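Note to self: keep these together.
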Amino acid sequence: MDGAQVSAYKPAEDGEGAVLRLSNPTSAEVVATVSGVDGDLVECDLAERSTGAGPVGHRLPLGPFATRSFRVTG
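Structure:
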């Protein structure tokens, strides 16, 4: 992981895949580069529900003090 902090990497509550939660503790926007994760990343909310967007890449922008969650699928 480069550019942000991993605040969680855990099995999904419904047993389908895992959840990766990233946070940016700084006052500047950062781009996190995710590596070592096998599967697609799909953004989800804190309750692990899909936000409706399709799979995202492995370079993820995070605004200042932001937290984003992703379901790892595949």
